[in-house]
Amino acid sequence: MRRILSIVASRLLQLLIMVSVLSFVTFGLMKFTPGDPIRDLLKVDDVIATKADEEKLKKEYGFDQPILVQYGHWILNVMQFDLGESIISKRPVMEMILSRLPATIALTIGGMVVLFLIAIPFGTLGAAYEARWPDFISRWLAMLGASIPSFWLGLLLIYFFSLKLNLLPVMGKGTLAHFVLPSITLGIAMAPMYIRLLRERLISTLQSSYIEAARARGLSKERILFFHALRGSLIPLITMFGLSIGSLLGGITVIEILFSWPGMGELIVNSVKQRDYPVIQGYILIVGFLVVITNLIVDLLYLVVNPQIKQGKESV
Amino acid sequence: MVPVLMKDITFKLLRDPTMRTGIFLAVFLVGGTVLGGMLVPHDPFQINMNNRLQGASFEHWLGTDQLGRDVFSRIVYGAKLTIGLSIFAIMIAVIIGVPIGLFTGFIGGKIDAFLMRIVDGILSFPDFILAIAIAGMLGPNLTNVILAIVLVRWIVYARVVRGLVLAEKEKEYVLVSKVSFSSTFKTIRMHLLPQVIPDIIVMAAIDVGKVILLISAFSYIGIGAQPPIPEWGAMLNEGRTYFQVVPSLMIYPGLAIMLIVLCCNLLGDGLKNYFDIRKRRG
What is the pTM (predicted TM-score) of this model? Predict the structure, then answer.
């Protein structure tokens, strides 16, 4: 129990440091930026801006106050779960982002399914036939997968499966068919590091003493591989998921834009283009929160699947 | 002496199949670019509406785009731009990050512990989204994307170098240097810096590829390079509506990105084998 509490406390501290540093940096950058959102806003509305209009709006959004005061106000509001409202749409930022969350989570799950369908077979093949041709193929696939830009891969998939073969819808969200291409793109983009990790883990597991013992008992090669070695090697993949949740949230942004998938990534990119500062600030906060919470869950899961840690033998 | 050494290094480099593939790919890409530039020189910005969406020909090796511009020379121009910017961004990140990592790691103490807490907090945040946010605050264009990348990447170098220094500084030769009244600066420069250089070279080689992917992704989603700059991601974005008619507009810029990044990854992995990094670190 003490162990659990200390994990939770250290993750909360991480969240606090991460979010306060990052939000301060972005606030500072906003101050240094040439041009300001107010003038951009007036431009969007197609109004001829007068100095008075500008001053009035600035006052309304608090942009006339010193940066530290603005930052303080923002922090105080955040503590009451209020992220302010969008400059462009006037809707509450919290509501805007959270309404996009389910679509992003759905795509994440789809991507993870594809990821494991790719990573487990190829990682296992690579380890089982180390330094032979299946290993060669799996290593080259991982290398190519790490080099291919995900948006280009998505474009190729759209071209072949939607435009040429007419099998799947091009973009948008709705039916299950809309899920297929974005999930495949995300899965392939994330797979290479998992293939490499699983292969390395399996190779070292296959050399360990309990596998030796299983071999000595005369168990078949396949049985050892799938029932003994693979099970032990899947645990590091859970940690990997925690570590890669950040790059997943980044990579998913591009894929959401490509497929017009109405998730958080699409929202943030559009907000960046319109320089909708409150949304960008709120997004940083929510992403930080998601990353830390995911890692907290991974930490706790790890305690469950790996009892050695629970007994305090971390180094084992 | 020197020619023999060079031959020795070349031999050792070429023995590794990964490195060999990487070098061949690099030679092929550079050769093709130079040759093409000499044989069929075109202005990558020259619009020619009578000549739009042409297929590949002897005059236009990869055809022309929706505004009649030569795709090959645009890709070549984009190569110089993207590769140059990536190397530049990584160099700045190295110049800022490595000294900070060396000093904080070597001196240690409370400041080091405090800084690393902050650094770890920032590093667990997705760099892509941080770069989006920074570019968003500063305004979406290529310069700000590079700035955002540098702001994020230097931290990674500082962190890695610090880790290496922590492992290295307890070793006897560093202690000897310390007790023989060498200054901190001298100890770091003479003993620790040479130890971390191979790791930095490997990391930088792979990072150049990563930054190329990042720049092109930013440009593709419309917050990096803006048209008419022939950045590969921007080219893909610009030609999006014509893909169904002229698929080559989609194929070539993407292929260029993939080959260059593949080249960086191969060279990085090859260098890792060459410097024997895993074995050295145990």
Answer: 0.85
